Amino acid sequence: MIKTTISEVHKYVDQEVKIGAWIANKRSSGKIAFLQLRDGSGFIQGVVVKADVSEDMFKSAKSVTQESSVYVTGKVQKDERSPLGFELLVTGLEVIHESTDYPITPKEHGTEFLMDHRHLWLRSRRQHAVMKIRNEIIRATYAFFNENGFSKVDPPILTGSAPEGTSELFATKYFDEDAYLSQSGQLYMEAAAMALGKVFSFGPTFRAEKSKTRRHLIEFWMIEPEMAFYEFEDNLKVQESYVSYIVQAVLDHCSLELKTLGRDTTVLEKIKAPFPRITYDDAIKFLQEKGFDDIEWGDDFGAPHETAIAESYDKPVFITHYPTSLKPFYMQPDPTRDDVVLCADLIAPEGYGEIIGGSERIHDHALLKQRLDEHKLDIDAYKWYLELRQYGSVPHSGFGLGLERTVAWISGVEHVRETIPFPRLLNRLYP
Ligand code: 4AD
Ligand code: MG
User: Residue 171 and residue 184: Cα distance in Å, rounded?
Assistant: First the structure.
């Protein structure tokens, strides 16, 4: 007997196979039982025909409870109507463990109830699909950067510095010293770029933001590439080809999952480099013309502003050259005017908001020191960072892509809480 998984059944058409699975759902009549089986690799329908099996087996198929674990044997059959394209004509069913009173039933449940049962909710078809797409984006990220000559470098999680401002830090004790959980690995990645040229990190980051929006997590995963000798324009090119690459990877490898989520793939097929660009100045003018009279030059964009800008395009759009006052200390000023910096945020279509923040970095020692002073940052903590500008300083650039916002956008899922296995939210540390 061939032991296999649901994702591999296409190799065994008309053969009998054995699969370890759970009963996701079930319906039956007097003569036939339909078992919705899941095994982690996918979902398949098992058909149990009373006339073809023993009386005991049919009884057990009719009585098996939701989320019981089973070994099922059956013949793989082509089935055009099912999303998978196959079903299993069940010949044997062995219950491994009977599940009683599984809390997540096929009826509707409230979000808080589902979030309290996140450890079980992950088994659902929808959550399974989102996690598979997240996994594909992770796989494609490593593939893209490895194919393009980047080395993966892992910055520390416990740090003494605050690249994105001091207001959103998780403070902790590091023995007798004060330390913070990393809000970005960027400063360390700049050091790594001077050693390895093109580098990227992929790790958890923490923001003690009291935000309760559909785009904010307290703990999220960020991909942070950093490139020596890359200037502003070079940086945007990497971003648009990276984002196009991961969207294409999901289209190529996750068609079943996108279908499960009801995602309109025609909008994803349009996501190909180059991406449109608009300067901050023009974005402000555009918004004012659209009737947003609450915004003026120097203000940061809120979600409604970003959405209004994104609606003009069917691809992600770069908003470039933000006012210096809105951005962190490390961004390189525009050489033609010093009130804006060489930065860009990438705004996803369909209201998903900012998925990337990036910039060229200041590489002049005196200017960087001045900016640290202006931001009232403790020079001692940044001594090592300043030293990067003392020994062969070069223009360099980088960016950070938020994994969960990207998964939400590509999957078409409304809220980032469904795009990470165990979300950390303002009011949630359980499970
Ligand atoms: O724009 P941010 O704060 O940029 C940085 O941290 C830079 N140091 C990155 C770099 O240049 N190396 O964050 C980058 C991205 C955002 O565009 C967003 O996608 C995501 O990280 N992000 C969040 N995602 C979920 N929840 C939050 N609270 C997030 N904050 C930022
Ligand atoms: Mg940002």
Answer: 14
Cα(328) to ligand 2 centroid in Å equals 9
Q: Work out whether strand 198-206 and strand 171-174 pair parallel, antiparallel, or are unpaired.
A: unpaired
d(CA 185, CA 228): 16
Q: Measured in angstroms, how far is the CA atom of residue 66 from the centroid of ligand 1?
A: 40
Instruction: Say what the pLDDT of residue 162 is.
Output: 73
Q: Report the sign of the C-alpha dihedral through residues 127, 346, 183, 399, in that order.
A: positive
- Structural domains of the chain ordered from first start: 2-97 (2.40.50.140), 118-418 (3.30.930.10)
* Cα(388)–Cα(398) distance, integer angstroms: 15
pLDDT tens across 374-397, in order? Answer: 999 989 989 999 999 999 999 999
Angle 280-289/303-310 helices, nearest 10 degrees? 90
Following DSSP, what letter does each residue of 48-103 receive, concatenated?
Answer: EEGGGS-HHHHHHHHHPPTT-EEEEEEEEEE-TTSSSSEEEEEEEEEEEE---S-S
Residues in contact with ligand 1 by the CB-under-6-Å rule are: 163-164, 184, 186, 207, 209, 216-217, 220, 222, 224, 354-358, 398-400, 402, 404-405, 416
Of residues 417 and 338, the one with the higher pLDDT is 417
Residue with CA closest to ligand 1 atom 21 = 402
Among residues 358, 362, 330, 331, the alpha carbon closest in space to that of 345 is found at: 358
Q: Which residue has its alpha carbon closest to ligand 1 atom 6?
A: 184
Task: Report residue 267: phi and psi, to 5°.
Answer: -70, -35
Q: Which ligand neighbours the alpha carbon of 165 most closely?
A: 1
* 374 residue type, one letter: E
Query: How far is the centre of ligand 2, averaged over its atoms, from the C-alpha of 313 (Å)?
Result: 20
Q: How far apart are CA 230 and CA 235, in angstroms?
A: 6
Counting atoms of ligand 1 from 1, which one is nearest the CA of 211?
Answer: 28
32-38 vs 43-49, strand pairing mode: antiparallel
| Protein residue with least CA distance to atom 30, ligand 1 | 216
Encoded tokens for 385: 């960072």
Q: Which residues pair with 347 in a beta bridge?
A: 317, 354
- Which pLDDT score, from 0 to 100, does residue 159 have? 93
